[in-house]
What does this fold into?
Amino acid sequence: MKLEGLRVLDLSLFLPGPQLSLMMADQGAEIIKVEPPGEGEPNRHIGPRIGENSVFFRNTHRGKKSVCINLKSPAGREALLKLCETVDVFIEAFRPGVVDRLGIGYEAVAARNPAIVYCSISAFGQTGPYRNIPAHDLATEAIAGVVSLNIGNDGEPTMPHVPVADMAASMLALSGVMMALYRREQTGLGDYLDISMHDSVLAWTPNITGPVFAQSRSPVPRHERSLGGSAFYNIYRTSDGRHVVLGAQEIKFVRNLLTEIGRTDLVELCERGPGPHQAPVIELLRQWFSTRTQQEWIDWFAGRDISFAPVKTLREAFDDPQAAARGMRLVDDDGYEHIGVPIRFKNEPGAARLTLPRMGEHNWEVLQTIGYSAADITRLESEGAIFSG
It folds into this structure.
């Protein structure tokens, strides 16, 4: 696999950092998860459980090793720094300044290993007036302006239903880590990567910043091209209370459908682009789609060159033949389900290792690789520098 031989130390919790290291684990990297004493990784305890583990933990920590180190212990901190000498990538997601107070900030780590790629993920980054504000996904999306775009039928903002800030930060962090590792091949030196969830959300808005940058105003969601202002990029209710979407606005698709239903007179409204003038087209399609069930519309659109899709539940989505064909639902030997590997290579494809670590399960294995003897490790345990769950 592409990342075999790469060693990653992950101190992060919850989603952005663990998702980053999961993507690397699925491509063969050795991920050493450092869990705090006590409860360990919060994902172990969040949401529904199946077997001994939560589904959340199963889908963020498969294939990783776990060590449990007390970073407030001088001996524990020294063990971590010795471990840093042997790794390629360091991931942390504490609030800005915490790692420096713990003595494991970039300068301290790079002094032991100049080749390390050190990645910090935080809500607002290491600089700026908001750097110390505590925040998770929702708050960063709110300040980045995207919650204001999620407007429900009542005209009020709705909750984002996928963690856009968390996942965007994970993807940008992966990109940055790979860039730094590539550059290290030429220079022999690592680098420090400062990833902000807030920055990441802002970076994902190029399709909706037209009115912001061209007219210095906020978008009006119900008028915008991708937010409800276009008849052919919209959601429609069916007669059985389910929903379907039209998902592309190219005029060829508009003509294809409006010709089928005998309303070519409305093509001109769509040719003018999104906005309030498309209201008659949207209303026509609302009435039209309300006359049949979702399945009947699936059958009607089959074979027609019109961008159409049924709105599936998440359970239906993972049971869909497309997800099966792409390996996006995996089942382990115990019958438990996992999200598949989305980064697909023809050669050296990734492969999820569907095992889960107990907290501190790999303390002995990992510490022995950096020179600690059995007596040393026993002493660390007795001093409260390391723990096993």
